[in-house]
Design a protein that fits this description.
The protein is of the alpha/beta class. The chain is built from 7 helices and 13 strands. A hairpin with a 2-residue loop joins strand 10 and strand 11. InterPro entries: ETF_a/b_N, ETF_b, ETF_beta_N, Rossmann-like_a/b/a_fold.
């Protein structure tokens, strides 16, 4: 039986979130929490692979108790089971500590049903690092396939997967042994509207919730702030760009205005050309 686990995260909606001008920190209360958009595509791809090959789709997240909503959203998409690790000991985790905690949870899930494939979103919109997925793969000693935008084949019997990895100027075809980990691009699929049966199941669904004490052989020094060697020293909102100059009149008059602007700013153009005019 093919067992796919999608690692997901609940994040603030960055289209709405605001910055506190006094503290230069994100005001998370200003925006609703949503399922990380890249992760929704990871779950959808897992569901599509289950439709092709059969099996079970599980989702895993680490977060505060309200992150249960993100798991239920995954159930709406079509996941079978949801797992959440939540504990104050996980608070303040960077990508290194996060990958460690999720790895320990994945090991526990694997004891329930062996894992063949892990799928993550390419990155989270609140962190943009793309480090957690490869970090999990390294800890589990499995191949990480990043920037996946097409799954060609999963052959559980012969133990391999074939995917396309997105590059700047095309794609490359990769064959990997199973188990392995994908981090997927948004363009790997389109997430459809949830079906009514899935929505009803999600509304009633209660995920498996574990604390630190439920995980085996765990080093608490590698969790949360204690296990996070990186810190965010400062965050600030970028300054709003200054308004441009509106050129008015007929085309000839607009050209004259443009030449006046260029001559007024000629030192900028000279610097860009390495000094002197050409």
């Amino acid at each position: 039986m093919l067992h796919i686990v999608a690692c997901i995260k609940q994040v603030p909606d960055t289209k709405i979130i605001k910055m506190n001008p006094k503290t230069n920190t994100m005001d998370r209360s200003s925006a609703p929490a949503i399922l990380n958009p890249y992760d929704s595509h990871a779950v959808e791809e897992a569901v599509r692979l289950r439709a092709r090959y059969g099996g079970v789709v599980s989702v895993l997240t680490m977060g505060p108790p309200p992150a249960v909503k993100a798991i239920r959203k995954c159930i709406e998409i079509g996941a079978d089971e949801g797992y959440m690790i939540t504990d104050r000991a996980f608070a303040g985790a960077d990508t290194l500590a996060t990958s460690y905690a999720l790895t320990k949870a994945l090991e526990k899930i694997g004891q329930i049903l062996p894992i063949d494939l892990i799928i993550c979103g390419k990155m989270t919109i609140d962190g943009d690092t793309g480090q957690v997925g490869p970090g999990i793969a390294r800890r589990l000693d499995m191949p990480p396939l990043t920037s996946v935008n097409k799954v060609v084949e999963i052959n559980q019997e012969e133990g391999y997967a074939i995917v396309h990895r997105k590059l700047e100027d095309g794609y490359e075809v990769i064959r990997s042994t199973l188990p392995c980990l994908f981090s997927v691009e948004k363009d790997i699929n389109e997430v459809p509207y949830s079906t009514m049966p899935n929505m009803l199941r999600a509304a009633r669904y209660q995920p498996h919730i574990w604390s630190v004490s439920d995980l085996s052989d765990i080093d608490k020094a590698q969790l949360g702030l204690k296990g996070s060697p990186t810190i965010v020293s400062s965050v600030w909102a970028p300054q709003k760009p200054q308004g441009g100059t509106l050129l008015e009149g007929d085309p000839v008059e607009q050209i004259r205005q443009l030449l006046d602007i260029v001559l007024q700013r000629k030192e900028l153009f000279e610097a860009a050309l390495g000094g002197g005019t050409h």
